[in-house]
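Hi all, long-time lurker, first post. I run a small reading group and we've been trying to get comfortable going from sequence to structure in the token notation. Rather than ask abstract questions, I figured I'd post a concrete chain and ask someone more experienced to write out its structure so we can walk through it together at our next meeting. Sequence below, copied exactly:
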Amino acid sequence: MYCGIVSIMKSTLYLLFLSSCLEQIYCEGTFTTQPSDETVKKGNNHWFQCDVNGIESDQSLQWFRSGRRLNEEPRITIQSKESGTSSILLITGIIPSDAGQYYCAVVKSSTDEKIASSRTATLVVKSLPSSQYPYCILETIPIIAGSNLKLLCLSEKVVPPVTLDWIYPIDIRYKNTQLVEDGKNISLELSMTAKKQYNGIVFTCKQESTLVQNNYTLCSVGPLNVLYKPDTAVQYASPALPGRETIVFCQTSSNPPVTSYRWLFDPQLSEDEYNIDESGQILKLLNPKIKQTGTNITCVAKNEVGYGSSSVNLHVSYNQVDSEHGSTTYDENRNEFQSKESDIGLSLDVIIIIAAGVVIIIVLVVLVPVYHYCLCRNDNTIIVDSLGKEVTQPEVYYETREGVILRHTVQDRSLPRVPTTEVYGHWRHSTASQVPNDLESHSYTYIDTDND
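-- Answer (accepted) --
Happy to help. Here is the structure in token form:
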């Protein structure tokens, strides 16, 4: 009985082995042409071919992609020939989503049972990312100085893969970048600690692909709006002069702007010793005293982010300026300045200017009047007549009537003829009358007469 059971088991194992062998022989020997792995550029066309030795009447060749049966679509065409023993799958206008695993199978029509399948072919589609990529995203809003700042550069998974790189407008030492894959997308994350120096700058992401030579596209995020609390600095002219009004200024830098200021004193000053303007940013010490030296003055500035403060120790002393030319001191009791006697040194330029001014004054005040007097005064020329008497020569020339040349007559003088005529022409003769020299207020009379 034991031998019978062993014999039955051997027979069963043999039948199973024979069945497996027959199926394997049938599967491998059925397909004479099978699809092969291919890499295709986006936009091109591609086709797969599948041939079998023979199929039964209730069987057909079907195409599958990633386990799903394919039917004819606008871009997919299935052509069968030779009584269904050959089939071609044509894909036009390849797109990235066409990438996948393709195979053909002998299917029983009545039950959709796969009788045999061809090898699986891998289709790889080479492409550039869509035009909307890269896409830059600012994840941290609002940005506050001191907090973590995170930026994303988003792109698409393609073959060959693109490279993403952040471009920094300033030197950023402490930063972290990480490439993350999520479904059909990839992103380059940039994280750092936000600083007020980053306010107003722009970050740029560069996307490159080896599919097209020198091909790159950019996206940017910014300018960043980094919020930070006020940075303050108290400033004044040190040392302050005793008794003289002193202005103390609270200089600030913040984003957003300062909304309020507050002044603190240690030890406390009385209200009549200082004044604060309407903005609160300017403090006036009305009457500083030497005993107030060392007073701590603090300015506290506030905005929407927080507070910022700065302090300074007041220094009140006499203003002393010593030099080789002199010095100036301030007397607190009399509340006035006194100047010590000292030699005043003048530069060469000042001496030249003073000398030029003196020369101009001399010319205008002295020489011009003298010149005018000498030129215009009524000095008579003294001459002596035949009898030895002095004769005063008048300034105005006087011509006697006897010297006048009348028409057609010639006396002691003659005048040239009128051109192109034989007669003497009419000539204008001028006669001046003389007035006494002592009547300077009188004017001279000028008489013109015509020759007859």
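A couple of things your group might point at:
The domain at 26-126 is CATH 2.60.40.10 (Immunoglobulin-like).
The chain has four domains: 26-126, 135-224, 231-313, 381-452.
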